[in-house]
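Field reference: sequence -> structure
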Amino acid sequence: MIATLKSCYPCNSNSIEEDNLVKWNNNNHSCVILNIDGSCLGSPTRAGYGGVLRNYASFYLSGFSGYIQNSSDIMYVELYAIYQGLLLAKNMGISNLVCYYDSLHCINILNGPSMRFHIYVVLIQDIKEFLERGNVTMNHFEFSSE
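Structure field:
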């Protein structure tokens, strides 16, 4: 897996590798935390998504990842990542959930009024149904390293 990740981010031979430490934070939530992301990268474009479920004490509960063949539409990948994360939480019986996501556009679409003519209206509606069934909060997360 490390070799695969390194091949996704080729190093420039003139640069010095520098460690980037990242810390997980539950932001004082006492429920399950879902961190998710989607990405389109490269030429030809590769699209993938993934996420991690952790409890309030940061213990790993479950994770998921996937590849979307023949897609370069980042909006679809981002929405599909949310859907897969919420589906995993539902299948695990988790209804009290805080979700952190870096796509403010997707969060605004999900928190906004229903859109009848959006290209991904069915996927958006499926996600909104997950959000309505349980105590699920969507939060915007911006990456920062310390």
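Note: Residues 74-91 form the longest helix (18 residues).
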